[in-house]
Amino acid sequence: MSRPSRSATQAQTRERLLDAAEQAFAAEGFGGASLDRIAEAAGFTRGAVYSNFADKADLFVAVLDRRLGRRYAEVADAMLSARDPDAFVAALRSPGWKAAGREDAMRQWLMLRDEFRLFAMRNPSAAERLARYDRRLRDYYVEAITHLLGQLGVESPINARLAAAILLAVDESLIRQHWIDPDDVSATAVADAIEFLLDAAVALSRTRDPSG
After folding, report:
1. Which of 48, 50, 152, 170 places its Cα 20 to 30 Å from the Cα of 188?
2. How far is CA 183 from CA 99, 175, 177, 179, 195, in A?
């Protein structure tokens, strides 16, 4: 049996470090997680971390990127499986979408992103890495908005990237508000907001094109 190539070995090392880091950040937070403990859990020395990542912030954003890829795949599959935006919104409201394990993980990682965001606001190099992650996240929102409005046969009434930034802000803020005050902000608030924004886009489209 041939030995793995150097690039394959490095990729395996990186994945093992990401696995260990994801568990460490989830258990201890960004500030509490130790690079030494992460390296040890992955079966390497601290040097292996620095061979693959510039620092703890770089490792954290790499973990976020990987989780975002998995989340994007879930949402994209739900959108493509839905016959229209109404069906997609109905899926977001369904109990299955908010299964306990998934919702707990979402809450945990939203809090971790908030913790890291405060750190990044005081650290320019971390802010640059977080900005790249946020831009990728907005890219996915642009794709989602374009797909859903395309199904409705309308174009975004505002710049697509601004629409993505607005939807991201609404999405994450409503999730926080629900967790803090579930009696006043319902568990379906995000789905309700998406439905409202889609209806508003259609209404604006008809206002601008009365023949439509």
Report:
1. 152
2. 19, 13, 10, 9, 21
DSSP run (H or E) holding 125:
helix 124-152
How would you write the pLDDT of the chain (212 residues) with one tens digit per residue?
Answer: 556 666 778 889 999 999 999 999 999 999 999 999 999 999 999 999 999 999 999 999 999 999 999 889 988 999 999 999 999 999 999 887 766 567 778 888 899 999 999 999 999 999 999 999 999 999 999 999 999 999 999 989 899 999 999 999 999 999 999 999 999 999 999 999 999 999 999 998 888 765 55
For 10, the domain range is 1-53
Distance CA 69, CA 57 (A): 18
Q: In Å, what is the CA distance from 136 to each residue of 8, 69, 103, 165, 182?
A: 26, 10, 22, 11, 30
Are 79 and 148 in contact, with CB atoms under 8 Å apart? yes
Whether the CB-CB separation of 21 and 52 falls below 8 Å is answered with: no
Same domain, 74 and 119: yes
Helix (H, G, I), strand (E, B) or coil at 184: coil
152 and 84 in a common domain: yes
